Amino acid sequence: MKTIIIPPSKSISHRAIICAALASGESIIEPIQLSGDIKATLGCIKALGADWYREGEGLLVKGNIRPPGDSAVFDCGESGSTLRFLIPIALMFPGQFRFIGHGRLMKRPIEPYLKAFEAKEEVAVSLKGDVLTAQGPIGPGIYKLPGEISSQFITGLLLALPLLDGDSELILTSALESKAYVDITISVMRSFGVQVENKGYQRFIIPGRQIYLPCTYNVEADLSGAAFFLVAGALGYPIECFGLNQNSIQGDREILNILNTCGARIEYSHEGAIRATAGTLTGIEVDARDIPDLVPPLVALLCFCKGESRIINAGRLRMKESDRLNALTQEFNRLGAHITQGKDWLRIKGVDTLRGGNVDSHNDHRIAMALAVASVKSNGPVNIINPSCVDKSYPGFWKDFYGTERVSDHE
Fold it and tell me: What share of the chain in percent tops pLDDT 70?
């Protein structure tokens, strides 16, 4: 039985680091995994005047940000969270700033901010090529955003608006998807002493003149990353995961319910481990509206479920690090799967095994990890182009997963 200690949640880590940067004083955040996305956020808070130091498995963050100056450049790497969280925070200050990104980052949606700020006289946000220019300052008031494109836009404004010199209200013009990510934001902010009132995920009341307070914050283990190992267990790879919170605020805790519904067995040990073991797996329908990050590992699972499965309401996955619906369809079918894609859905006909072969990660960490899981029930090796893309979210993935000879992570 292989044992994995699941690394800390990337989603929670982003938020805790930013809240600590906004606080006046020193905060301890632990544990922290220095993935590519987290490094991008740490670089951006330094550009805002905060500082940080590695302390064991955690970080000491020295907060109290300051105006960055007109020459400031925020390099967000490939991190959508970093870009969308930091734009409103930089806009609290007067001046003009530039945000740059890599990979597909600046091709991913940013229009909700462009529209939300266009009615604000002193604010200008524009995107030309791979450079986003933002000029502030923003003021308190009413802001309107769609809820179905990305919850990250909501989080960015929730983080910044409490610091303004007046009360604000955030109104969603369409139903919010991925509600759990907003719950995470509000929960982390509360730990740092800042309050937001959630009115049924349609309106958020944000009192101004609040102060972020430094604290010691413990980051729970990442259920999005753990999902790949739990699925591998359900497919017969003997593996157990330590450190997971069964009552986590993370929406991706839903992986446990989905595995159970498919017919896998979920076991909890007295030592705090969770493992999924193989059962008679049958096809199901999964609504991905609130759990988009689970779709890649779920494709690896549903490929081996008897009968037909469907993943619906997954259109947002076309706007991630890759077009994930297309990438999953293309690469799993190369291995012998039977997947059909639509605008916002996948239909999967179960097979007993895959044949293995050469596949492309599409420079997408979650595609690479899903293909690795597929190797558990492949008759031949699965050779993945650009496996190092997992560094974006889970630098230790190959070390943790390696142990099955069916994984071959060739460049």
Answer: 98
